[in-house]
Amino acid sequence: MHSGADIKEFGGQMSGPPLIPMIHAIEAASKPVVAAIEGIALGGGLELALGCHYRIAHSKARVGLPEVTLGLLPGAGGSQRLPRLIGVPAALDLITTGRHVTAAEALKFGLVDQITDHNTVNVAVKFAQRVADQPLDARRISTYPCLCPSDVAVLFEEVMQRVRRTARGAIAPIACVQAVRAAATLPYNQGMERERELMATLFTSGQARALQYFFFAQRAVGRWSMPSGARWDTSKPRPVHKAAVIGLGTMGRGITVALAQAGFSVVAVETQEKQLMEAKQAISGMLERGAKRRGVAPALDKINYGRNIQSVADVDLVIEAVFEDMALKKKVFQQLSAVCKPSTFLCSNTSGLDIDQLACQTRNPELVVGMHFFAPAHVMKLLEVVYGPKSSPLAVATAMQLGKKIGKVSVAVGNCRGFVGNRMLKPYLEQALFLLEEGATPEFVDQVLEEFGFAMGVFRMSDLSGLDVGWKVRMADGLAMPDPTTGQPTRLRQGRRYSPLGDLLCEQGRFGQKTGRGWYQYDKPGSQVAKPDPWLHSFLDEYRARHALVAHRIDHQEVLERCLYSMINEGFRILEDGIAAGPEDIDVIYVFGYSWPRHHGGPMFYAATVGLNKVLERLEHYYQAHPDVPSLQPCHLLRKLVASGSPPIQKWREVIKKVRSQL
Ligand SMILES: CCC[C@H](O)CC(=O)SCCNC(=O)CCNC(=O)[C@H](O)C(C)(C)COP(=O)([O-])OP(=O)([O-])OC[C@H]1O[C@@H](n2cnc3c(N)ncnc32)[C@H](O)[C@@H]1OP(=O)([O-])[O-]
């Protein structure tokens, strides 16, 4: 088993003998060297194997060159040998995606010479004895010509365009293509020199730092803790065999699919007959498509459908996914508490409502937690596990383990409005609206955010998820109402600036993609191609005129700083409040749930990269300009961190602890 270089060493001094001369020495050896690949050979591990004359892999082994996911390229000859061994197109695929491949796939590519179900080392030794007398000249990969389709230039041009589109500003995938192009067009020694130059640039880049931080952050969130002191290593989960999902709208369907695909028996309940029939059909379709992709049988028989909540009596865990309405959810929790066995965990998929209020409806509030999935729930990797003041460590541990079993990256967070993800989204969305009021267009704001690396800008994202969702919440909160004295939309709520722009669009029936109109226009309802809408531009002009707002030129920097720094400021408040245990939790939530570009590490890591003093100074500047926007007021923890000399992100927890102990 070889998982490549020690990623922790990348920031400092690398230990051990240099890899490249060692690989060259192995390749140049006059005796045959056979690599026996048990378990995994990734990164430098596979590069070492590529220096050998033969490769034997166990059938359960996995191999790959995942350096790109760490902001690097295979810098020990991998970018030069792999294309020579398996051809340029296959090598480009493996090196630019970093994906791990099974032994069977590796054999198909010609990456390994043989696979075995037996002891790999024994098989490799026998293999070596068999080939001991054979000449080695034809086994040294660095001497191979690079197999390439005839029109290399066209191939690389196409690949480069595709990679640039999907990289969203990440530099490593581009450098990977350049390194493979060197293999295809230059002699081996010159190709190695190019690999070295490209690696040198990547190695010291901020993106590599961010991606390597994120590698460990993803793993750190599994080691959760609660302010009570409960922790992952002292809290045992209870096994879950049978689960139930209540409410088969979009979220409930996705959750049912995720559970069934992971092998859980699921009772899926929907009280409306028509909805139930539609959901059954949709769920079966999703399962069939997923199974076809993975080449397995669809898990249709794992699900029992029903209209009656009584049918969940014997399940171990329920996930409620009814409409986002507190009164309705409370009723469901009362029913569940009466129907289920006393040990059943009762979870809610609410995206921001108070978990404690739901827990209070039940006999065993300690068994209630939030399980906040992200749409589409069978695809999106993120799960926020939300503990309320009464949730037991047992319930948190069980929900976290269930999340892991269904392939989610689960993050334990505290209970507050919007939890972590949606709470931080609020100031971000708010700033985007204020920017429109002050003169920006949705196209410009989105362009800046997409250039930063988000998959979608804030307005395209709102159009996709539906403007009516937030509108209903604001109506329930008494926000989306005109001034009762004038009947006009007001721009202040309880002394704070408020933008009614989203409400005004909803009043016009502009709910986004589904209605064919939102912040953009679409050819027809449901279409995904967003086009600038002249109606919206004149609507914004009229709105500004009505409210005596003078449009000014808003530049790239202002969009980025106001949207991102207000979100980051909320992140610091979340840390101060103890809602997230550390910055890694926030960053993992943002990368997996909100398409934050991974090569910027997550919002909190990004703040550290920009410099906390700069973030503080810019927030102070914007708050001075907009004193009626409290989300721009720098929070105490940010000030404290700056006053403590802006320690590296790994040290923030100590400062957070101090700040919290003083509260
Ligand atoms: C000149 C150089 C050229 C070369 O091209 C550069 C490279 O090789 S670049 C390298 C290319 N290689 C890669 O990118 C491989 C990255 N690694 C992986 O993909 C997965 O960890 C692996 C598949 C190996 C195991 O998955 P799994 O079974 O689900 O287990 P898990 O993931 O939970 O890990 C268990 C523990 O091991 C830790 N750890 C693991 N690997 C490394 C490492 N390389 N380093 C340090 N630590 C590492 C991990 O943090 C965790 O620690 P903790 O304290 O328990 O949280």
Structure description:
By secondary structure, the protein is an alpha/beta fold. The chain folds into 3 domains: 198 residues, 2-enoyl-CoA Hydratase, Chain A, domain 1 (Alpha-Beta Complex), CATH 3.90.226.10; 175 residues, NAD(P)-binding Rossmann-like Domain (Rossmann fold, 3-Layer(aba) Sandwich); 108 residues, N-(1-d-carboxylethyl)-l-norvaline Dehydrogenase, domain 2 (Orthogonal Bundle), CATH 1.10.1040. The chain is built from 27 helices and 16 strands. The strands form 4 sheets. The chain has an 8-stranded mixed sheet, sandwiched between helices. It has a 3-stranded parallel sheet with strand order 1-3-6. Helix 12 links the parallel strand 8 and strand 9. The longest helix is centred in the middle third of the chain and has 22 residues. The radius of gyration is 28 Å and the shape is globular. It starts with 18 loop residues before the first helix and ends with a helix. Bound molecules: (S)-3-Hydroxyhexanoyl-CoA. (S)-3-Hydroxyhexanoyl-CoA (3H9) binds next to strand 2, helix 2 and helix 10. GO terms for molecular function: (3S)-3-hydroxyacyl-CoA dehydrogenase (NAD+) activity; delta(3)-delta(2)-enoyl-CoA isomerase activity; enoyl-CoA hydratase activity; NAD+ binding. It holds the Pfam family ECH_1. Keywords: Fatty acid metabolism, Isomerase, Lipid metabolism, Lyase, Multifunctional enzyme, NAD, Oxidoreductase, Peroxisome.
Write out key terms for the chains shown.
663 residues; alpha/beta; 2-enoyl-CoA Hydratase, Chain A, domain 1; Rossmann fold; N-(1-d-carboxylethyl)-l-norvaline Dehydrogenase, domain 2; eight-stranded mixed beta sheet; three-stranded parallel beta sheet; 27 helices; 10% strand; globular; binds (S)-3-Hydroxyhexanoyl-CoA
